[in-house]
Amino acid sequence: MPSFKQWKTAFDQWENASAEYSEKVMKMPSVLVPAGRVLTGIMKAKAVSDRMQAQWWSAWGLPTKRDQERTLHLLHQLESKIRDLEEKLEDSQRQARN
Hints:
Blueprint: H1 4-26, H2 29-59, H3 65-97
């Protein structure tokens, strides 16, 4: 029975050989062009799906993902302004005490 070291050596050799082969295959235009077309098609389908979902949620009167993101952004801005005002208030209170 082969030892772990022998098995590891054989595995490393196999991994290196398969990685080199995969690199060569993945750089071939006959693989890249169709893969690019498939990816483009998937991205277009996702964009259509996202638009349809947004319309569906809007039809029910519910906020879309974009609406929620805008609201969250505004909340973060308000929170930041409140923190700034609290710091200014604390500073002015410290100065009034001194």
